[in-house]
Give the backbone structure.
Amino acid sequence: MREIPKGWQDFWAEFFRIKHRHRTEGIREWDKKLVAHVIEVLGLTKDNKILDLACGGGDQALEFARRGISVVGVDLAKVLIDYGREAARGENLPVKLIPGDMREAKFTNEFDACVILSGSFGFFNDEDNVKVLQVIEKALKHGGKFYIQMPNPLKRIKEEWKGWDEVEGGFVLMSSNYDPKSGKIVDSFFYITNTGELVRFMPSPEDKDFSVETKIYTLPEMIKLIDTANLKFKSSYGSIELPLEEYRTTSSSMIVVGEKP
């Protein structure tokens, strides 16, 4: 079997965030439900402008735009940005997507709200995760709000799983485990093609610090990081269901909401 190393930007971003994601049953309805939850929690209206960090292929950004909200999205993978731009053009939606590292996004007092969705917070070390929050602080107008969706750490640390999915042209095998020493979820995956090739993840220079390890924070730890970035914690929720559900130890998710004073 021939083994092929591939980085996030040159293969896995499109594979997971477009091809694999769009094969997931019910994913479009899930996106609609998530966006409806964000709008409800943050009190967004059609004249608002939001920043979507780590926006992926723009699935949720486009859903916000379909509801009349102007969106700017940032993602490291250019292939995802290109995909989202094409989709936005096809529907003539008010979405601007920019390739780049979310730690380095440069906006000042521009947005009514900022979102980080689908567990896309925690890719870096503590210092750089604070940098992401500082980007949010600088980008928001005074009184602007933020919404960060993460797995519930009190549940996620107990969950270990592995399995496989059939995808276009082959099969992907995945596993996910919690490392108590680092406080990170460690994912591993490889793709076996129908022609007998084995594609493994190997980060490239273009991937910068992208990692398959994601730090998950408890609520008190997140509140401390938020305070370090000169933001203010306001509330937390345990799912994207409506009516609103407060965050609990048994919740499926941990959604953190706050504002720029």
Observations:
- The helical segments are 8-22, 27-42, 59-66, 78-91, 126-139, 153-156, 219-228.
